[in-house]
UniProtKB/TrEMBL annotation:
GO terms for biological process: transmembrane transport. This is Peptide/nickel transport system permease protein. Gene3D superfamilies: MetI-like. GO terms for cellular component: plasma membrane. Pfam families: BPD_transp_1, BPD_transp_1_N.
Length: 324
C-alpha cells in the first residue's frame, strides 16, 4: 500500500512538471489569437476577446490560473471547440484505448509463440523466416505499412473497410467496437498496422530469452528428469523469460495510447491522436496540456500495474518498502 501511494504521489509530481513544460513550450511558440480571431475584426474586438480568454496576462499568471482550475477538476475550455478540454479527451479516449488494446493483443498472442519457436529451433527454416519477418517489421515505416494494408486488403481484395471506427456494441456496461462484427472489420487494419513493430519486438525478446535460458542447468535437469517438452517450455522456460517481455509490453501499451497519431490519421480513426494534432496546429493550449497530463498519469498507472505483475509471475519478487 505504501508503495502504491508513493507511486501515485510521483504521478502527481510528474504531471505537474509536465504541465509546466508543455504550457511554457506552447506559450513560447506563439499566441493562438491570430488563428482564432477573424482577420477582419476591429482592434477593440481583438482586445476584448484576448482579455476574455485571459491571454493578456503574463505567463506565470496564466499558468497559475490554469493549475488552480486543474486542482478543481477544470482543465479549461478548448479555444477551438469551446467545450471542456478534459471532456473532449475522454470522449475520444475509448477509441484510442480499444485500438491500442487490439494492437498489443496481436503483438503478444502472435509474437510470444513465434519468438519461443524461433528460440527453440534456431537453425530451422521457420525460425529464419520468423526472424527475417521481424527485421522487416522493424524496418518498414509505419505510414508505408498502412498504405500497403489499405491498398491490398481494402482496395484490391475488399476484405476490410478503409477507414472509420464502425458500429459500437455494449457488453457488461462497456461500449466498444470490439463487440460487433462491423467494429472488428473496421479495427483490423489499423490494429495490425499499429501492432507490426511491437510484434517484431516481442518476437526478438522471446527468442533471445529462450536462447539465454535454455542452456541453464535447471532446464537440462528438468529434461533429464523426463519432464515433457511442453512442461519444460511452459513452466520452466516461458516463466523465466516473461518479466522483460511484460516490462516491454507494458511500456509499449502506453506508447500505443500516446503515439498512435500516424495510424489514427491515416485510417481516420476517431481517437485522441487526431484531436491532439489539430490542437497543436491551432495552439489549443488547454487541450494539449490536458492530453499530456492524462498520458503521464496513464503511463505511471501502467508502470505500476507492470510492477505488481512481477510478483505474480515470479513469487521470489516482492514489492517491499517501495522496491520491486
Amino acid at each position: 500500500m505504501v508503495y502504491i501511494i508513493r507511486r501515485l504521489m510521483q504521478a502527481v509530481f510528474l504531471a505537474a512538471v509536465m504541465s509546466f513544460v508543455v504550457f511554457a513550450g506552447i506559450y513560447a511558440v506563439g499566441s493562438p489569437v491570430d488563428i482564432l480571431i477573424d482577420p477582419e475584426a476591429t482592434q477593440a474586438e481583438r482586445l476584448r476577446l484576448i482579455a476574455q480568454m485571459g491571454l493578456d496576462r503574463p505567463f506565470h499568471e496564466q499558468y497559475l490560473v490554469f493549475m488552480g482550475n486543474v486542482l478543481q477538476g477544470d482543465f479549461g475550455n478548448s479555444f477551438i471547440y469551446n467545450r471542456p478540454a478534459l471532456g473532449l479527451i475522454l470522449e475520444r479516449m475509448p477509441a484510442t484505448l480499444e485500438l491500442a488494446f487490439a494492437a498489443i493483443m496481436i503483438a503478444v498472442v502472435l509474437g510470444l509463440p513465434l519468438g519461443v519457436y524461433a528460440g527453440l529451433r534456431p537453425g530451422s527454416v521457420g525460425s529464419q523466416g520468423i526472424m527475417a519477418g521481424s527485421i522487416l517489421g522493424f524496418s518498414v515505416p509505419n505510414f508505408w505499412q498502412a498504405i500497403m494494408l489499405i491498398m491490398v486488403f481494402a482496395v484490391m481484395l475488399g476484405w476490410f473497410p478503409v477507414s472509420g471506427r464502425g458500429e459500437v456494441g455494449e457488453f457488461l456496461g462497456i461500449r466498444s467496437s470490439l463487440f460487433t462484427l462491423d467494429g472488428l472489420q473496421h479495427i483490423t487494419l489499423p490494429a495490425v498496422n499499429l501492432a507490426i513493430g511491437h510484434l517484431a519486438l516481442v518476437i526478438r525478446l522471446a527468442r533471445s530469452g529462450v536462447r539465454e535460458v535454455e542452456p541453464q542447468d535447471y532446464i537440462r535437469f528438468a529434461r533429464a528428469k523426463g519432464l515433457s517438452e511442453r512442461r519444460v517450455v511452459f513452466v520452466h522456460i516461458l516463466r523465466n523469460i516473461l518479466i522483460p517481455i511484460v516490462t516491454v509490453v507494458g511500456m509499449s501499451f502506453g506508447g500505443l495510447i500516446a503515439f498512435a497519431v500516424v495510424t489514427e490519421s491515416i485510417f481516420a480513426w476517431p481517437g485522441m491522436g487526431k484531436l491532439i494534432i489539430d490542437s497543436i496546429q491551432l495552439l489549443d493550449r488547454p487541450v494539449v496540456v490536458a492530453y499530456l497530463i492524462v498520458i503521464v498519469v496513464l503511463f505511471i498507472i501502467i508502470n505500476l500495474v507492470v510492477d505488481l505483475l512481477y510478483s505474480l509471475i515470479d513469487p521470489r519478487i516482492r514489492i517491499d518498502g517501495g522496491k520491486a
